[in-house]
Structure to design on (671 residues):
């Protein structure tokens, strides 16, 4: 998992509320056997409309998604997070995320930031008026900055520490490497093995 | 204070314990199949990680595998890609795999025990909810999600939240014709599909002790359908006898050491369970489901229930919806419900004992006209054993189809599916809407009831068969 300290990038203002995971990545994409390559499935139905904000040439290369409230509701699928990341988003800002989606996003290194709806509105207005306007999400300072906007946000200390250090669940467990090896050394010889002893 | 079986196994696997954090548990055996593993391997690849213990990991192909023409290329592209991906991943990461056509191939939960890999006192995980099957050996076995599969591949451990314990004590003798399947269906109906939530169940009592290993696996298999995290049975002589001599069972001194350890695992006399349930085996009868979740069941001798009879409003609505989906009318005797198909197989009832039981009933008889009966052994080994005993001939002579091993119609990921509206008596474990094919209607039953149902064309128990049924049919 990549470290997240501070990120500055252009934005995609998504003025929609209750965006569910099936809209983020439709079910037929779940047949894939990789964790990458989901970018074309992101918001697939809406992207059929060429005026959809993601399709606008001036939004190409944007990395910050400014979403409406209740983002990521519906069935639990990590693919929704992968799709956003595969597309190039580093962070999503909203006034409210669905719990499971939020948990999945933070575990996978996609920083989801909760801001007051009024701040979201100002970011929408700013980035709609000027597609080149940049937003900075500063995890160290726990602050979102843009022209005329300076908004603090909250994030659990432990989660923040993990993101700052780029630690996923597996790396955290592997910090206990000594304990795991020590445990392995005490396992009785009669425990089953799937392969012949090397 | 004494400890329960589940607590002992848990304690023996704690790698790290810290205040306010979940215990980090060591995993003895990791089973893989093609559906839930691809992204886990891809995650390893993306992070540049390897499989920590290939010697505690094994893969088999089951969910998607065809049960006909297994030597031909797999027609369905999604199934083919999943199987090819598993083969590639196994090769790349050095994981042992049993592919279609291999003598050890089969449903993952049939394969582990028959190889002797599932042992008492072990922790077993698999990206599949019916991993609870392995609890029949006194293993702590549970299903995990794809990101946990990746975690176990990389670390051979899992951080796990604590569980509560529930004792389900079944005393007495099961009446003639009543099986482990009837018992577990009755238990789920009694405690509900959410009744086991957060618990590890321990099945105990004289009725449980007298069950064979196959029957114990049937019981533990469906623990998840009561919402439980796992289900376990204390290991005893029956367990040891089943294991001794199997390819991966300990040998010589190791065997003695293992048995000595296994004998210490049973719940202590003074241990306290968080919850207890008692069941009188003598009161049980053949059981079938009438609805669309495994908790919607009733004795075969009963009628389709009237939704109005449920006090809980949620249950009432669920029953109304279920009857609509199932095309059933309240008050109809279950014995009058006609079926189009019968499925004998799955990790619940696809072992040799199950096939023997079904074969003994259809032997010398013919299945009812218009009924399609599919017999799908749980593994290639089970199939070979059945052929050696001539069971395949018994089934085909009766008009049933004898197929290749796999999950098959348990979930209809391969071509074995019900057509919309078709009704099936199935020995599998889930009667959810569309589980066996879009619009398909499932009644969960024991192998014995499945066989009798196939002969009569309606839900029936072996006791309903008159001696001249062959002529009638
Ligand atoms: S037989 Fe059915 S329940 Fe068992 S592993 Fe296969 S699909 Fe799952």
């Amino acid at each position: 998992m990549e470290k997240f300290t501070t990120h500055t990038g252009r934005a995609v203002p998504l003025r929609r509320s209750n965006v569910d995971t099936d809209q983020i990545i439709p079910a037929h994409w779940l047949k894939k056997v990789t964790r990458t390559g989901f970018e074309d499935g992101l918001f697939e139905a809406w992207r059929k409309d060429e005026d959809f904000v993601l399709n606008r040439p001036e939004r190409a290369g944007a990395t910050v998604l400014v979403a409406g409230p209740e983002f990521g509701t519906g069935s639990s699928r990590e693919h929704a997070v992968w799709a956003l990341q595969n597309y190039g988003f580093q962070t999503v800002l909203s006034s409210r995320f669905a719990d499971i989606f939020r948990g999945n996003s933070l575990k996978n290194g996609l920083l989801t930031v909760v801001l007051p709806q009024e701040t979201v509105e100002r970011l929408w207005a700013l980035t709609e008026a000027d597609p080149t306007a940049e937003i900075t999400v500063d995890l160290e300072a726990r602050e979102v900055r843009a022209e005329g906007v300076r908004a603090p946000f909250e994030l659990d200390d432990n989660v923040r520490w993990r993101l700052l250090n780029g630690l996923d669940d597996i790396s955290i467990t592997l910090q206990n490497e000594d304990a795991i090896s020590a445990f392995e050394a005490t396992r009785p010889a009669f425990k089953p093995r799937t392969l012949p002893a090397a | 204070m004494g400890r329960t079986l589940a607590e002992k196994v848990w304690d023996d696997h704690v790698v790290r314990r810290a205040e306010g954090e979940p215990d980090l548990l060591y995993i003895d055996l990791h089973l893989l199949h093609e559906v839930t593993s691809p992204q886990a391997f891809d995650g390893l690849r993306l992070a540049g990680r390897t499989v920590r213990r290939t010697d505690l990991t094994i893969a088999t192909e089951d969910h998607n595998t065809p049960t006909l023409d297994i030597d031909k290329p797999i027609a369905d592209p999604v199934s083919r890609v999943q199987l090819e991906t598993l083969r590639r991943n196994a090769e790349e990461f050095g994981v042992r795999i049993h592919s279609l056509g291999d003598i050890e191939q089969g449903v993952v939960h049939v394969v582990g025990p028959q190889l002797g890999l599932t042992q008492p006192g072990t922790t077993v995980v698999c990206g599949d909810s019916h991993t609870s099957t392995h609890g029949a050996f006194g293993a702590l076995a549970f299903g995990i999600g794809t990101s946990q599969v990746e975690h176990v591949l990389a670390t051979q451990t899992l951080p796990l939240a604590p569980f509560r314990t529930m004792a389900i004590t079944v005393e007495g003798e099961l009446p003639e014709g009543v099986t482990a399947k009837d018992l577990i269906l009755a238990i789920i109906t009694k405690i509900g599909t959410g009744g086991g939530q957060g618990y590890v169940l321990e099945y105990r009592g004289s009725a449980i002790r007298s069950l064979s290993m196959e029957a114990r696996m049937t019981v533990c298999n469906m623990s998840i359908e009561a919402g439980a995290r796992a289900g376990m049975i204390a290991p005893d002589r029956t367990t040891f006898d089943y294991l001794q001599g199997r390819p991966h069972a300990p040998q010589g001194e190791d065997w003695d050491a293992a048995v000595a350890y296994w004998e210490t695992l049973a719940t202590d006399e003074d241990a306290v369970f968080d919850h207890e349930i008692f069941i009188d085996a003598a009161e049980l009868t053949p059981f079938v489901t009438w609805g669309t979740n495994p908790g919607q069941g009733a004795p075969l001798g009963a009628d389709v229930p009237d939704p109005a009879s449920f006090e809980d409003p949620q249950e009432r609505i669920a029953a109304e919806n279920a009857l609509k989906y199932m095309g059933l009318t309240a008050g109809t005797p279950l014995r009058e419900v006609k079926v189009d198909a019968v499925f004998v197989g799955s990790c619940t009832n696809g072992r040799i004992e199950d096939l023997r039981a079904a074969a003994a009933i259809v032997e010398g008889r013919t299945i009812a006209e218009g009924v399609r009966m599919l017999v799908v052994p749980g593994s290639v080994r089970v199939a070979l054993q059945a052929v050696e005993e001539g069971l395949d001939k018994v089934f085909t002579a009766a008009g049933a189809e004898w197929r290749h091993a796999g999950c098959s119609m348990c979930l209809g990921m391969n071509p074995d599916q019900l057509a919309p509206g078709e009704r099936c008596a199935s020995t599998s474990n889930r009667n959810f809407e569309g589980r066996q094919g879009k619009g398909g209607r499932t009644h969960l039953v024991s192998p014995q009831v499945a066989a009798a149902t196939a002969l009569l064309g309606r839900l029936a128990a072996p006791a309903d068969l008159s001696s001249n049924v062959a002529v009638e049919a």
Q: What stands out?
A: Chain A touches chain B at residues 1, 31, 33-36, 78, 107, 168-170, 173-174, 176, 179-180, 183-184, 187-195, 197-198 (CB under 8 Å). The helical segments of chain A are 21-24, 44-47, 79-87, 99-107, 117-129, 157-164, 169-174, 177-186. The CA atoms of residues 174 and 183 of chain A lie 13 Å apart.
